[in-house]
Amino acid sequence: MSLALPNDSIESLQEDVTLLARSGGMAAFDVFSSARRLRDEARALVERTRRPVELADLYVVIGQSAALMASTAFDLGHWNESAALARASTQYADLAGHASLKAWTYGLQMTLANWRNEPDSALSYFARAMRTAPEGEPRLRLRYVAARSHALLADSDSVAAVLEAAQRDREAAADRPDELATVTGGEFAFGDARAAACAAAAWLDLRNGEQAARYAREALQVYEALPSPRRPYSQINGTQIDVAAAHLHMRDKDGAADALRTVLDLPPQKRNVSLTGRLSRIEHMLSQSPWDRDADARQLAERIAAWLSQTSARPLA
Q1: Do the beta carbons of residue 303 and residue 309 sit within 8 Å?
Q2: Is 272 helix (H, G, I), strand (E, B) or coil?
Q3: Most buried of 94, 122, 231, 298 (most Cβ within 10 A)?
Q4: Closest Cα partner for 32 from 80, 73, 87?
């Protein structure tokens, strides 16, 4: 016989996963460990109930926890584990009947595919996600991630088209607030800053420094308006690196160096894969014309190489 669970058991897990999703300043391994604990606690409660309402709530907690684990496993350099956790989070969102979470987890799988330089896979996930994604912010996020996929395929017309379509989703989002984005928020929110950062990354892939710099600065302005404890260090520093890359595309070495000042001061435990991947591209750009014979550019590249030698990559156990 299955007994009802105490209300505070599930509510406590829901509150904990919400707080963890909002912990933008926390190091990746600490987020991963906390999310794994919440996932395991929710799984244990699943074994104690067969009540559909309770199971749905617990599946949401497991799906959100797995999504946070997937995101941070990627940051820690474990791409295969990240992909497996992302698939699991999609499955639990589906079991819970949570369309917004399912759309979010598909977007995570799109992002991982983009980082693996597999834009066709990302666009396949996009097509699946759009069949179930609610109107408003869930679709807005998916379109911005898809913009990066089209950019990787050097398809500037599709980038422009998908960003234009996203404006209609933005209007819908104002009338239909998404609970996952607004109530849970944090990692599960998208908002203007992340939208602008996605657009900046897309224009960078198309080597358009002017447009990339414009959108990246727009993102930084939104982040800087947040209270200090709520500023997500990874997104902010990643955007700063994109500003630097944009300046290099515009042949502005000093602007690039200035954008990297605070990034190069990050402690090793916060140097995640998202940041190291971006900085590696900067290092590669500095090794090519017109910077390969420039002494200052060479010195900046050496600082970046030293930074890259100490990262947050570590075993997940």
Answers
A1: no
A2: coil
A3: 122
A4: 73
Do 144 and 194 contact (CB within 8 A), yes or no? yes
pLDDT at residue 1, as a whole number: 44
* Distances 260 to 111, 225, 264, 285, 303 between C-alpha atoms, Å: 24, 20, 6, 14, 10
| pLDDT of 316 higher than 70 | no
Residue 76: what pLDDT?
87
Q: How far apart are CA 26 and CA 269, in angstroms?
A: 10
Give the percent of the chain with pLDDT over 70. Answer: 96
| pLDDT (0 to 100) of residue 138 | 95
Nearest to 181 by CA among 294, 287, 290, 101: 101
**Average pLDDT, integer, range 45-69:** 95
Q: What SS3 string covers 104-125?
A: HHHHHHHHHHHHCCCHHHHHHH
Distances (CA, A) of 3 to 49, 50, 51, 54, 251: 6, 8, 8, 11, 67
Q: Is 247 helix (H, G, I), strand (E, B) or coil?
A: helix
